[in-house]
Structures are given as C-alpha cells and as structure tokens.
Amino acid sequence: MKRKLFKSLFPLLLLAAGAWGTVKLLELREAPRTQKIRSEKVTLVHAAEAVPKSYRILVHSNAKTQPVARLGISSEIKGRVIRISENFIEGGWIEAGDLLFMINDEDYKIKVEQARSQYAKALNELTYELTIALTTQNVNSGQRNKLKNLDIKELYRAISELNSYEPKVKNAQANLESAAVNLKQVELDLTRSSVFAPFNGYIHSVNLSEGQLIQPGQSVGTLIKDHPIILKASITLEELAWINIAENRGNSQNGSRVRITKRIGEKSHIWQGEVKRQLQEVDTLGNSVTVLVEVENTYSNLGNVLPFGLFVDLEIEGNEMSETIGIPQDSLRSNNTVWLISEEERLQIQNVEIKWKTDHEYLVARGIMPGARVITSYLPTPIPGMKLKIFDPEQASGPDPGKRAGPGKEAESLTKSGTSEKAPRQEGWKKRLEAGNENKKRKKLAREN
Fold first, then answer.
1. If you placed Cys at 59, which of 1, 11, 287, 316 could pair as Cys (CB 3.0 to 4.6 Å)?
2. Cα atoms in the Cβ-side hemisphere of radius 13 Å centred on 412
3. Same domain (yes/no): 134, 211
4. How far apart are CA 206 and CA 211, in angstroms?
5. Strand 388-390 to strand 43-45: parallel, antiparallel, or no bridges (unpaired)?
6. β-pair type (373-375, 47-49)
7. Are 415 and 338 found together in one domain?
8. What is the Cα–Cα distance from 305 to 187, expressed in whole angstroms?
9. What average pLDDT score do residues 66-70 get?
C-alpha cells in the first residue's frame, strides 16, 4: 500500500523539486548588466611654457698649447766660447737682455785697431789729394791750411765746391769710404762676440760647452718665448659667425673671451684668453676653420703656469642671442618635432627649426610661439588630437607620469568626471565570485539531502 502511494506521489515530488530548483537558480542569476559607454581617456603629461629670453652663445673646443715664438740660438761670428751663463741650461728661465754665452773677442779687438788705422790713413790721403786739387785751381794757401782741421763732413763739402774732380781725389774719397765701412763691420763683429736673449723665455735645449769652437750660424740651443701662449682651436663655420676676432683684416676690436680649463689631479685649473686671429682657410671637408687664441697671463686661478704641449678644453664666449625660446633637449622628438598642448588640451605635433644647441637646451629659430606649452615627458604612442592633462602633484591621485609610471605613461585612465573605471570593475568581479561560491554550497547540501 505504501509502495503504491509512493509511486503515485513520486512524479509530483520530482516536479516540485524541479520547480523549486528553477526558482532558486533564477534567484541566483545576476541581473543583466547595462552596457557602459566607454569614456575618452586622458593622458597625464609634464609640460613647460615657452618663454623667450636672452642666451649667451658658448662655443666649445679643445686645443694644444704652443709657444708664440721658438728661436734657434746661434752665433753670427766664428770663435771659441769662453763663458756660458749659468741659466743657459735646459729648463732655465732667461730674461730679455741676459747674456747667454761669450766668444773670445781678442781677435776682433785687433781687427778693430787695424780698421781704425786704415781709416786714418785713407783720411790723410784724401786731405792731401784735395789740397793739391785746390792748389791747381788757384785757391789761396789760407783755405788750404784749413783742410787739416776739417771734420769729414766739412771735408766732403769742400770737395763738392771744386769746379772739377781730380781722379786722385776720387780714388782717395773711395778709399776713405771703404775704410769707414770696414771699421764699422769689425766694430759690429766685436759686439757680436757676446750673445744676449732677445726676449723672456725658457731654454728648451742646449748644445754648447766652454772651449767649444763654433761657426757662424751654428745652432747651439733653443729659446721658447714664455708668453703669450697660442692655442689653435677648430670650430665650425656656424660657430664662427657668433664670435669676435680681435685682428680681423686690419680692423682691431676686442676678441671673444675664452675660458681655458684643465683638470690636473683633483683640482681644476682655469686660465683666461682671447680670440686674436683666424687662419684664412677651411679644412678638407669645408665645414670648420681654425682660430688662434692667445693667453697673455699664463698663471691659472690656482697659481700654476700653463705648460706647453698640454691639451686643454676651451669655452669661447660668443655674442648674445636675444628673445629666443629654449626647450629641454628631451623635448625634441624625431624629425625635429615637438609635442605641444593645444588650447583644447589635445596633442599637437609641431615641426621646429633649431638655431643652436646648448648643454641642456635647444634654441628654436621658428616653430614655437611664446606661451606655447611644450610637453617634456614621454608618450609611448603619440596620436595627434589625443586628450591630455598636465600633471598636478597636489590634485592628482594617480602616480606621477614622469616618475613611477615612467615618462608619459598613462598613470590611470580617467573619465571626464574624474572617477576611475578600475574600482567598479573590481567590485563586479568580487560579487560574481561570492555568488558562485554560495551556489556551490547549496548544490552540495542538496546532494547530501
């Protein structure tokens, strides 16, 4: 009886259980989600305002120090060296007018005495021949006696007053002139027995010793002038247009100042120079020239003398570039373009012409107007017209696009209302996860019953 009743009620119970399960499943089913309209993304960027100002052009180069004069020391006469200055050694410092070495002058003193005797003899012969000539022309004896007391100039004046020259007078006059020249020459050779320094400088090399017999023109050493020091700096033709040259085609002006630096050990030495001249030729490639920089004061700011043969860095102070816009070097993009923020807060890619490059900036000739906002951070995918917003560390809740998120990376996609899409998305996943866990628990309980 009970079995028959169970069999008749089982279908009804099965239908009831199915209905109950359907109702529960409908209760657990999520309500259909409404499709959200995706808001336009706004990318955070760093930007700087373009403000015109004046820039001092600085031209950088390097050069090797070299002396303005290098003199080979030699003697003009032949003789044996009897004295050498104690400073005439390698590395010795010599002042202008200091004695370098001396040659035995006894032979030249004898030659001077012989030349004086020959001159006196020629003078007497001329006086004698002139007296005879005046006698021939019926000049009175009083005037003839005066010839003995006349100096050479008055004697020549008396000769010029003759109506005609006698051949013997002419010969005597020529002999006197020859004797005078010979006397002057030997007196000059006597003075050349002592060799003096023509300028201040350093002895670079010496090849001389006492007792040595030297010949005229024989090199016995090298003297280097101590100042000014010359530096030959190579610069481009574009850089040349911005500097001043002191001696330019006969026009004298103040040359551009030059800052010369060299780090020696742990200290940096600084010297000051001036652009003096320019070599009138360009290099083989045709894009650079050589200017000559002179360093008059060879002492650095630390008191060290600028040595010869030293490679140094040069910073030439050029003219001033006024009312020019400068942008950070990181702001210049490929193909000489920059990224600007338009008035509608959108990306604008602008071509620019670069006029000059400094250590940290590019100076723009055209392409950027004063007041323009130049993007200084990086955009991985720059699309003209994309929405931008300047990062404000006091107002923004997201990371700095120039720091943690990397330059120009989207710190977070913001909606126009300023709320984040990330929080609602996470909340939806959380609800679905909780509902799934609850459904699994109910199914497990139903199987156990």
1. 316
2. 16
3. no
4. 15
5. parallel
6. antiparallel
7. yes
8. 41
9. 91
C-alpha span between 413 and 379 (Å, rounded) = 14
Question: Which residue intervals of 360-421 are DSSP H helices?
Answer: none
Which residue would you say has higher pLDDT here, 401 or 52?
Answer: 52
**Per-residue model confidence as pLDDT tens digits over 316-363:** 998 888 888 888 888 888 888 999 999 899 999 999 988 888 888 888
State the residue range of the domain holding 116: 105-192
Question: Residue 380 carries which DSSP code?
Answer: S
| 8-state DSSP, 420 | B
**CB contact burial 219-231 (16+ within 10 A = b; e otherwise):** ebbbbbbbbbbbb
Any idea which residue has 């239908």 for tokens?
15
Q: What is the CA radius of gyration of the chain?
A: 51
Mean pLDDT for 35-42 is 68
212 shares its domain with 277 = no
75 with 214: CB under 8 angstroms?
A: yes
CA distance 58 to 243: 9
Q: How many domains does the chain have?
A: 4
| The model's pTM | 0.62
CB distance 294 to 240 below 8 Å: no
- Residue 173 and residue 46 share a domain: no
Beta bridge partners of 312: 63
